[in-house]
Amino acid sequence: MIWLVASALLFSIGAYGALTRRTAILMFLSIELMLNAAALSLISFSKLTGSLEAQVVVLFIIAIAAAEVAVGLGLIVAIFRRRETTSVDELRQLRG
Amino acid sequence: MQETFLLPLIIALPLLGFVLLGLFGKRIGEPAAGWLASLLVLGSFLLGLVLLLQGGGRWALPDWLPGIPFSLNLDNLSGVMLMVVTGVGFLIHVWAIGYMHGDPGYSRFFSYFNLFIAAMLVLILGDSLPVVFIGWEGVGLASYLLIGFWYHERINVDSARKAFIVNRIGDLGFLLAMGLLWSMFGTLSISELAEKVEAGGYSFTTLTLAGFFLLVGAMGKSAQVPLMVWLPDAMAGPTPVSALIHAATMVTAGVYLLVRHAFMLHDDAYLSGLIVFIGLLTAFYGALCSLGQWDIKRIVAYTTLSQLGFMFVAVGVGAYWVAIFHIVTHAFFKALMFMTSGSVIHALGGEQDVRKMGGMRKYLPATHLHGLIATFASGGLVPLAGFWSKDAILAYSFEYGPWLWFLMLLASVLAALYSIRWYVLVFWGEYRGKEHPHESPAVMLWPNHILMGGAIGVGFMGLPYVIDYKNFIEPFLTKAIGEFPHEKLPVLTEWVLILTSAVVAIAALWWGFRFFQQKMPAWYERFQAAALQGFYADALYNTLLVNPAKGLAELLFGGDKGLLAGFAGLGNLVGGLGSLLARLETGSLRFYLAGLLVALVLLVGWGVLR
Amino acid sequence: MIHVGLWLPLLAGLSLFMLPSLGRTFAIVSAAVSLAIAVALFAGYGGQGVAYASQTPFLPEVGVYYAVGLDGAGLLLWIAVGLVVLLGVWIAEVPVRFLALALMMQTGLLGIFAAQDLIFFYAFFEATLIPALLMLWFYGGAERLKAIYIFALFTLVGSLPMLAAIFAVRYLGGAESFLYTDLVAHPLTGQAAVLAFLGFLVALAVKTPLFPLHAWLPSFHQQNHPSGLADAMGTLYKVGVFALFKWAIPLMPEGFKEWQGLLLFLAAFGALYAAWLAFSAPDWKTLLAYAGVSHMGVAALGLFSGNMEGTVGALYLLGASMIYGSAMFLFVGLVYKRTGSLDILPVRGLARHTPALYVLGMFLLMAMIGLPGLSGFPGELMVLLGAYKVSPWLTFLAFLAVIAAAAYALTAFQKLFQETPQAQAVPDMDTREWGFAAVTVGVLLLMGLYPKLFTVYLEPLGKALAALFGGAS
C-alpha cells in the first residue's frame, strides 16, 4: 500500500519535472521517472492481488524504457549538434 | 342528345385554320387567307346549327386525367352561344378581309383569329371544367396575340401583356374554384356538379366560396370592376379584334360561366347580391368613363364595360336567360358599333380621335345608317334589340327591389347618352378634319348590313309576356340552364315599366342629341377630364399594386443573393472554427505534455468515479 | 434491353470523348437509339408495377444488388431524359467532347430513375455530379470556379446525411438487403424515421431544388456554357421530387408525416418566391433558373400533399418541366448564337428578323407558365386538386405564382422579341432548328392535350403512395 503512495509521489515529481524543466535532458529524466513510477505501482498491485501479469508488464516497461532512452538521447545529441541548444522552448518548428 | 364526333369537329375546323394559316400563311396570301378563315368559321356555324336542331350532342374522352374526362356538351345554352360566336364571328372575319387589307401580317392575323374562335368554342362547349379552362386561357392567349398584333409598337405589347396578367388574376379564381369543387364533390363535370348540388347535403358556405371563386374568374374575363383596367387598353389591337373579342364574345365568357353555374347561384342570396353590386358598379363606371373619352374605340370599349355590368346584374337578380339574351342582342349592336367605328377609321385613313371627326353622315351614307341603328339599339330605343333585353333586365331588377330598378334605369339613361354622344361626335355636325373620307368596300359593308338587321330584329325572340307574341328564347334557354320558379309581374306593372323605359330612352336620346352638339359647359369639362383617365384607376393600381410588386421583386432578388451569402457565411464559420482549433498547435513540447497530463487526470478521474 | 438502354450512353460518351473524330453524328445516333429504347420500353409496359426488373448480387454480404427496373414514373422520365439529350446534342453549338460529357451524364440520370437498390441509387445520384462539374469547369464562364464550389459543396454536403440515413434505413429497419422491395417491407418508425427522413431531405431538397436550399442554382446556370446544353442536363438532374416519391416517403412514412407541414409551406412559398423575383432577373439564365425553382416548388407541393392527385401531378409536372425547361435553355442558346448575349436588356426586337424563332419561343414560354393545352398544365392542375384538399391556403399561396409567372415571362419575352427592333438582321431558323422546333412543339402539345398517355400509369403509383397514409384520395 505504501508503495502505491510512493509511486504516486514519484509520478508527481516526474510530472512536475517534465513540465518545468527547460533542458531536454532533464525533461527526459523526468519522463523516465514517471515511467518507473508506473512500473512501481504495477509491482505493488501485483503484490496486492497476487497477479503475475503485472510483473510481466513491468519487464516490458523496463525493456522499452531502455530502448526509448537510447533513441531519445541519440535524438537530443543530434539536435544539440544542429541547434546548439537543448532548451525545449526554442524547439518549435512543428507549430501549426 | 347523342354522342357525336361532329362536336369536336366544330372546334377542329377553326383550329385547322390556325395551323394552316400559321404555317403556310405567307404562301396562301391575301385575300385567300381571309376567306379560308371565314369559311372555316362558317363551317362551324352550320355544323353547330345542324347539331342544335337535332337536339344537341355530347362527346367525351374518359379519364383524360385521372377521374376527369375530356367532355363536350352542346345543349341549348351552349348552342345559343355557339351561334353568336360563330355567326357574328363569321361576319367579323369577312369584314376584316377588307379592313386588314394591305397589312404585312395579314395571314398571321387570320391565323390568330381562327385560334380565338377555336378556343372560344372549347370554352363554350366544354362540359368538364378543365376543358372549359383550356378554352378560357386559350382565348386569353388569342387576345394577347391579337392585342399585341402590331408588336413593334411598345404600347401595343404593353397593353397585351397587361390584359394577360390581369386575366390571370381571374384565372387564379377559376383554378381555386376547381380545387374546391373537386375536394367537395370529386368531380369537375358541370352536368354532374349540377346533379350533386341539386341533390343537396353539402356545406352551404363552402359552395358559396366555390361560387365566389368562379365569380373572381368571371370578373377577370368580363372586365368587371376592379379587374376592368385591361379592357380600354385592349383597344390597341386592330378593330376587328375589338369587335369580336372585346365586345361580342370573349368578354361575355364570364357571364356565360356564371349562367352555366346557375344551380350554384340561385339559392345564394349573398353571392347573388355581390354579383348585383359588382354589376352595378361596372355599369356606372363604364358609362361615366365613356362619356369622357376622345378615342372612338375607347368610347365604345367603355360602353361594352357598362353593358357587361348590366349582364352581371341580370345574373345577380336571377334572370339567367335574360343575361344570355342580352349577350345576343349586345353582340349584334356592339359589334356593329365597333365595325362602324372601324369603317370610319378606315375611311379617314387611320384617324381615331373623334375631335377630328364629325359630319360623316354626308360622306359615308351606308356607314351612317349602320351607326344610327347601332346608336338606337345601344341606347335602348324601342323596338330595337337593345330595348327588349335591357327591359327584361329592368323588369327582373324591379322584382329584386324597386331601388335597383331605379338605379338600372339611371344606368340606361347614361347608356342612351353615351350612345348618342358617339353618334353626334362622329356623324353629325360638320367635319372637323382634313382627310378625304371614302366609303368602305362591299366586303366591309355587307357584314354590317347583316348585323344591322340583327340589331333591329333579334330582340323579337324575347318579348315580355304581356305582349302577345311568343317568347322563343326564354323556354329555349331555361331548358338548359335550369327551371327556377319565377313569379311574373302583374300585367299593369309590366306595362308601366316597359313604357317608362321606352319613354326615358327616347327622352335621353333626344336630350343628348341637343346637348352634345353644343359646346361643353365647364362642369362637363371637369367631369370629362377625370373620366378620360378612367377616374384614375390605372394610376391607383400602379401606385398600390404594380410598383410595390416590382419593388418587392427587386428586394427578393437581392435577398436571394443574401441567402447564398448566408450559406457562404456558414462555410466561413466552419473555417473560423478551424483556425480557432489550430491555435492548439503551438509547437511547444511542454504545452503538449501538459495537455497529455491533464487528459490523463481527467480520464482516470472519470474511470474512478464511474 | 434495359441494361443496353442504361449503359449505352456511357459507353458512347466515353468512346466519343476519347475519339472526338467520331463527331456529332455519333452522339446524335447514340441519343436517338437511347430514346428509341426508352419509347420501346414504354410501349411494352404492362401497366402495373415495376417492369423489366432484374437483379444480380453485387456485394451480397452487405446486401447490395445491381437491381434495375422501371415503373410508370421511371418510364416517363426515361423518355424525358432521352428526348432532351437528343434535342441537346442535335442543336447545341458545342465542341464534341462536351457532347460526350452529356452522354456520360445521361447514364447517371437513367440510373437514378431505374435503380431498384438503394446503394446503386446513391451511386448513380452522386456519379451524375461528375460530368456536370466537368461541363461547368471546362466550358463555363468567367466565374465558374465559384459556381463549381457552390454547386459541388451544396450537393456533396447535402448527400452525406443521406448516406447516413441510408444505412439507418437498412439496419434500423431490419431489412435483409438494400433492394427496394426489401426496404419497403420494413419501413422505419418513430424517432428514427423522423431523423432518417431529415437526412434524405437535406440531400433531396438541394436537388429538387426546394427553398431555401436552391441558392446554388442561379450561379450554376449563369456560369454554364451559353449554348444551354449543360443547363439542360442540369435541369434533368433535378431529381429531388422523384427520389422523394420513390425512396424517401415510402421508406419513412412516419418521418415524412412529421415534416409534412413544413415541407408544404416551403414548397408553396418557394414556388411563389422564385416566380416573383424572376421578374428582376437581368439575364435569361437567371430567369430560367428561378422559373425552374418555381415549377419544382409546385411539383413538390403536389408530392407533399400525399394523395393520388398530388402525386400524379408532381410526377407529370416533373417530366413536363424537364422537357420544356431544357428546351427553353437550348432555345436561349439559339438566341445567343444570333445576338451574342443572354441579357434581357437592352431591347432587341428580334421578331422582325426571326418570326419562326419568335413563335417557337412563344410556345415554350406558354408551356412554362402553364397554359392549358400545353404540357405544363395537366401536372399543375393535378397538383392543385391534390394540394387544395390538404391546404387551401398554401395552394392559394403557391398558385399566385401563375400571375407572377405571366409577369416575368411576358416582360422578358417582350424585351427580347417585341418592341422596336434594334438588332441587325439575323438569320431565322435553319432546317436543324426547325426539326428541333417541330419535335418540341409536338411533344408540348401531346403532353398537354393527351396526358392520359402517361397518367394512366401514374395513377396507380399515386394511389399506392396515398395508401401509405390511410388511402386519402
Summarize the structure.
The complex is a heterotrimer of chains A (96), B (610) and C (473). Chain A is mostly helical and 96 residues long.
Give a description of the structure.
The complex is a heterotrimer of chains A (96), B (610) and C (473). Chain A contains 3 helices and no strands. Chain A has helices spanning 2-20, 24-49, 53-83. Chain A has one domain (2-91): Helix Hairpins. The relative contact order of chain A is 0.14. Chain B folds into 3 domains: 1-264, no CATH class; 304-518, no CATH class; 542-609, no CATH class. Chain B has helices at 6-28, 32-53, 76-99, 106-125, 129-147, 154-185, 190-199, 204-221, 230-233, 239-248, 253-260, 262-265, 269-290, 296-316, 320-347, 360-363, 365-379, 385-400, 402-427, 442-457, 473-481, 491-515, 522-532, 537-582, 589-609; strands at 2-3, 57-65, 68-74. The longest helix of chain B has 46 residues, at 537-582. By secondary structure, chain C is mainly alpha-helical. Chain C has one domain. Chain C is 73% helix and 3% strand. The two termini of chain C are 35 Å apart. Classes of the chains: A mainly alpha (96), B mainly alpha (610), C mainly alpha (473). Chains in contact: A-B, B-C. Chains B and C meet through strand 2, helix 5, helix 6 and helix 24 of B and helix 7, helix 13, helix 15, helix 17 and helix 18 of C. Chain A: One of its GO terms (biological process) is ATP synthesis coupled electron transport. Chain A: It is a multi-pass membrane protein. Chain A: This is NADH-quinone oxidoreductase subunit K.
